[in-house]
């Protein structure tokens, strides 16, 4: 199966604790201290945590209350997304110094295809080192990188020597690298799937590789063929420099829970205005409007409506969202409201990938 691995040179760059590192860089008093970006000790969730906080089990997506319980000295910092976007833009410019085949995944990570690159350097490993140095010299932050023949392996490798490190998995090392990897480290295998694999006796990549395609499809449906291929180093997804936006959203978590639809409409008007700005920025419109409601007991509900025409105007969005809000009675007081628009007027572009033969 080794000869089926596409001959690409892919780098996955991942900034180290990006939001938290930006805050520590901008405020010397926070350096070396456990900090959480977002949330508070009474409510909300953590968006990012510094490495000092991670030692205590503080991580993104856990509640602020649990984070404070795990780390009593934790310092909560209000997110500054405009600042993160500003630095992310600088980092993106650095990526484009090396290649135009850059696929951002978020503000703090991206794939780069350097098979053919602007530096004329045949070594993806040396390019990754140079990229990380350019980022540090330019913005003052560290990044980690993974280098391999496809996106799947490169992403796993970027986490291998964090923080401020990198790992290269050469073509002839891909299968052996994946065989000894714990199954929970496989990108795309979440907590629920990990538990299911454990129950089926799959703990490592080698355990997964020993299972037949029929077995994996029977137990994991369409994902079965994905698992069957990636553990053999087969992942043909190319780096797409113009990822298509599938949805645009905006939401707000409130300091005080809302129990009146009148107050909710006021908040939704502000959210709709933010959404309108984002739609204009992306130059898109959509047909499907979804209202997201998170109640005070943390249960979540969505209500959607698909229109026969595309919308991006705040007034039209608010009109539909108001209709969705009054569609049925609230189950409880509300702590978060969000609006998203999908079914966008974007078209998927076609890409042609040329396979080359070379030394990695």
Automatic annotation (TrEMBL):
Keyword Zinc on entry: no
Keyword DNA repair: yes
GO cellular component, one term: cytosol
CDD domains: PolY_Pol_IV_kappa (cd03586)
Free-text remark on how the cofactor is bound: Binds 2 magnesium ions per subunit.
GO BP term, pick one: DNA-templated DNA replication
EC annotation from Swiss-Prot or TrEMBL: 2.7.7.7
Residues of the UmuC domain: 10-190
InterPro entries hit by this protein: DNA/RNA_pol_sf (IPR043502), DNA_pol_Y-fam_lit_finger_sf (IPR036775), DNA_pol_Y-fam_little_finger (IPR017961), DNA_polymerase-Y (IPR050116), DNApol_IV (IPR022880), PolY_HhH_motif (IPR024728), Rev_trsase/Diguanyl_cyclase (IPR043128), UmuC (IPR001126)
One GO molecular-function entry: magnesium ion binding
Residues that, per the record, bind Mg(2+): 14, 108
Main location: cytoplasm
Reaction catalysed by this enzyme: DNA(n) + a 2'-deoxyribonucleoside 5'-triphosphate = DNA(n+1) + diphosphate
Cofactor requirement: Mg(2+)
Signal peptide extent: none
Function: Poorly processive, error-prone DNA polymerase involved in untargeted mutagenesis. Copies undamaged DNA at stalled replication forks, which arise in vivo from mismatched or misaligned primer ends. These misaligned primers can be extended by PolIV. Exhibits no 3'-5' exonuclease (proofreading) activity. May be involved in translesional synthesis, in conjunction with the beta clamp from PolIII.
Subunit organization: Monomer.
Protein name: DNA polymerase IV
Organism name: Flavobacterium pygoscelis
Record lineage: Bacteria, Pseudomonadati, Bacteroidota, Flavobacteriia, Flavobacteriales
